[in-house]
């Protein structure tokens, strides 16, 4: 092994991938993790016989970086059915496979949500993006997604009924102001792959990354208070000055000179409920296009993977984008909405747990697929990793960790 002291702050996906790449290059890094476990924003709790992911999260199997670092077979991935259940004002409709095979959508169901022209445009968009590289997507002009959809010619009916509730749940903002680059990237990933979760929860992804590490040391409950130059100051009073440092989390938490340099991240509230059985009975996302509803999307995680429950009850995940309600009032309001959607008495939806996630995904103005070494370099000794450098996705988190590690390795090469 090469004897250089390299530290990584953060044992999330970016930090773990950085460590994997450093090991490949012959180094033995040390990871400082402020919490008691790995995963960062990707965690799964065991509560009352349920597996609860920290927020509704999905792995897209078409992600290029995920293919590099994950063994999908060993994860025993469980797949979402393509499409969505649309809970309309009076009726509920199922749109099957609109992003993968839009022309095969049942005409009657689709007509309730959009027009035949919308169907054709979905097909054309899918075909266009199949032939467009990811680099081409991220190098093109960026406009708000809602503007992109309007200019592409989709009807307001289809934008309101499908695109808005579907992509609000991904972008975590209500007006689809997110860059069209991200829309095309996510659309391409959904149309070329599948949405999935590991059988036993999203924590299995960082667990798999950690198992690839052989010589990396992870020190838990090591909270960093500041980074000054290349010196790390810990909450316990200890100071460390490594030869190289990768900050695999948003650095303004530790570096005063970077405070105020990052936009406020996107937040989400995820509520979990249990029910005697699923009222959807299919591994499909439920979308609520009604503007006056708290619920944006819902899914029975036990319809996707039965292992999310070990007590025989169904587990329902509900995502809320914005509310001022306190937990008790919010739970009651959501139970009432679930009753109106399912016609099942509100009291049968047993509340399990809520997650108020203030940092769900970063807000990135100039979304990118990759960056040169210089853009993740603070100094000759300090480097950055995290999806905030590229775009808010699992793919970007992995890519940023890889790029940071490559930058560190490159920094040791002699200059001629």
Give the helix/strand class: alpha/beta
CATH top level class name of the largest domain? Alpha Beta
State the CATH architecture of the largest domain. Answer: 3-Layer(bba) Sandwich
> What proportion strand?
15-25%
Radius of gyration: 22 Å
The tally of helices reads 13
Q: Which runs of at least 5 residues are low in confidence (pLDDT < 50)?
A: none
Please estimate the helix content. 25-40%
Strand order of the largest sheet: 8-7-16-17-18-15-19
Overall average pLDDT: 93
Give the CATH topology of the largest domain: FAD/NAD(P)-binding domain
**How many beta-strand runs?**
20
> How far do the termini sit from each other?
25 Å
* Fourth CATH level, the homologous superfamily of the largest domain: FAD/NAD(P)-binding domain
InterPro entries: Amino_oxidase, FAD/NAD-bd_sf
GO molecular function: oxidoreductase activity
Protein name: Protoporphyrinogen oxidase
Pfam family, one: Amino_oxidase
